[in-house]
Amino acid sequence: MLGAMNLNKFILLLPASVITGFCNGLAIVIFVANLAPFKERGTGTWRKSEEVGFMVCITLISMATLQWFPQIPKLIPKASNVVKLIPATLVAVIIASAFEFVVVRPSGYRTVTIRDVSEFTPETALPIPFFVDHSCCDYDMGKLRESDAAKTIIIQGILLTLVGTFESLLTAEVVEDYVKTPTDGRRVMLAMGGGNMLCGFFGTMGGNALIGNTTLNVLMGGKLRIGPTITALTIMIITIFAYPLLNFIPVAALVGLMMTLVIRTFKWFSLKMFLATALPQRIRDKIKLQTKVPRYEAFAILATTVLANVPKGTNLAYAVLAGVIISALGYSWRSGNLFEINETWEGDKKVFEVNGPLFFASANRLAKVLNPNKTDDVILVFCKTTLIDYTALDVLNKVRESYEGKEKEIEFRGLDEESMRVINKATGHFGSIKPAISDNHPECHPSVSPGGKLDKSNDKPTIPGAPPFSLPSQHALTAHASPWCGTTGCVVM
Q1: CATH number of the domain encompassing residue 381
Q2: Alpha-helical segments (H) within 8-148
Q3: Considering only CA atoms, which of 334, 278, 332 is closest in space to residue 301?
Q4: How many domains are there within the chain?
Q5: Using CA atoms, how far apart are residues 115 and 13, in angstroms rounded to an integer?
Q6: What pLDDT sits at residue 109?
Q7: Rounded-to-integer distance, Cα 138 and Cα 316, Å
Q8: Predicted TM-score (pTM) of this structure
Q9: Taking a C-beta distance cutoff of 8 angstroms, is the pair 120, 239 a contact?
Q10: What is the rounded CA–CA span in Å between residue 32 and residue 416?
Q11: In terms of domains, do 356 and 326 share one?
């Protein structure tokens, strides 16, 4: 449904900080989940030290094979074609399983295998629809009639949908960087939804595109859409026809694969960002640590990472939402601080020239400056300024009414096409704005830079060596995008 509504476009609203925090949080979730095999089922206590030791060895063997097997062609170029045909994950599982039955078992010890956790049997080899009575499956459909069943299903369904959608679309972005071809987010969402509906029909666990698994698949050479298709079909064939072999695989071998995914999913560069954000500039310069980002961005990464795991009851969906809120608030505060108001005179009228986006974080600052009790007739010039939201319109409307109530005049000049479009749509609610709008588009004085000085003799700011500055025509200003500039640079809105 989300795919049919083209809601995949909302992935564009996720800042890089939230995506980084999402990957970190997901990596920690996977890491914690894969510690479970090292504990006794039911009690949650750690297994015997000897068994844990051998499990760690098998895990490390699996990880090492997965890491170094693809590097063989660099040492033996002639083996390149053979290595490319054999998945490193399969080799890792085979070598780890061999260690279990050649080293561990003859030593009088054993580690937990898939048979010990969830044995594959002839009864579970084929997928069975949920409504069919079968010896392998016993679905208690009566629970659906419980009072809170519908609420639980809906809430969990929404959360799983959000998490699955986030990760699938993020995975598509990651794959796009690797294969250098554009992805279709709508197709990704439709495929995920169809696959999960089919899984539910057969009573199996649903899923989504995993960043780690997909990255591993791409790195192993599966760069076309047929790659994951072949993977899925191969798994189905093995599960149906070769399931007895699966029961002999040590769980620790699979843990090694997942731990490798954890390492590749976690964004390790974010640790340097945290360190740079916490250290003063003097120390950063001394150790040449130039990885600092705005503090609110670092906080968004940290919050998303933490909330994906703790406290109890939170999950990746809540973490992403929190990260987006933090990033949005930080951006709003930072953008509001870039809003500038310069004062000058035109005859006996005071002129306020404003630069920057006019929205809720900056509009209230403008309202405090435009006080009819302190100024007489006023001209408000919009230099590279666009009205963004309801608050901007509301402030201009109230300012106009306050000056009109004091029998004073206020004139709005330089409004761009986008601002006029917003005003025209809301004329019925903000009727006081339009009468004050002037068609005059005057030249604006340049903003004062840190090296500039304000010439008090004529109230015109001057910047050493700067050429004369003039405001482009209304059409030229908004022909493509509406840029605005502050003291730290320009942003295209």
Answers
A1: 3.30.750.24
A2: 16-33, 49-68, 72-75, 80-85, 88-99, 114-118, 122-125
A3: 278
A4: 2
A5: 45
A6: 93
A7: 31
A8: 0.77
A9: yes
A10: 54
A11: no
Structure confidence at residue 471 (pLDDT):
34
Residue type, 24: N
Question: Does residue 392 share a domain with residue 367?
Answer: yes
Same domain membership, residue 486 and residue 351: yes
Q: Which of 17-21, 196-200, 210-214, 456-460 has the highest mean pLDDT?
A: 17-21
Q: In this structure, are 280 and 320 located in the same domain?
A: yes
Q: How do beta strands 340-346 and 453-455 pair?
A: unpaired
Taking the CB of residue 255, how many other CB atoms lie within 10 A of it? 23
Q: Are residues 310 and 385 in the same domain?
A: no
Counting other chains too, the contacts that 138-147 makes at CB distance below 8 Å and 24 or more residues apart are: 139/203
Three-state secondary-structure class, residue 307: helix
Q: Can you say how many angstroms the Cα of residue 91 is from the centroid of all Cα atoms in its chain?
A: 34
Q: How far apart are CA 468 and CA 464, in angstroms?
A: 11
Range of lowest pLDDT (1-5, 70-74, 306-310): 1-5
Write down which residue in 316, 334, 352 finishes a domain. 334
pLDDT tens digits, one per residue of 265-284:
899 999 999 999 999 999 99
Same domain, yes or no, for 306 and 396?
A: no
Instruction: Report residue 345 as tokens.
Output: 């005179």
Stated length of the chain = 493
| Helix, strand, coil percentages for the chain (3-state, nearest 5) | 60, 10, 35
Same domain, 379 and 447: yes
Asked if residue 386 lies in contact with residue 484, where contact means CB atoms within 8 angstroms, the answer is yes
Residues 354, 486, single domain; the answer is: yes
Whether residue 34 has pLDDT greater than 80:
yes
What is the residue range of 308's domain?
269-334
Assess contact for 393 and 421: CB atoms under 8 A: no
On the question of pLDDT at 95 being above 70, the answer is yes
User: Which is it for strands 349-355 and 378-383: parallel, antiparallel or unpaired?
Assistant: parallel
Pairing of strands 460-462, 483-486: unpaired
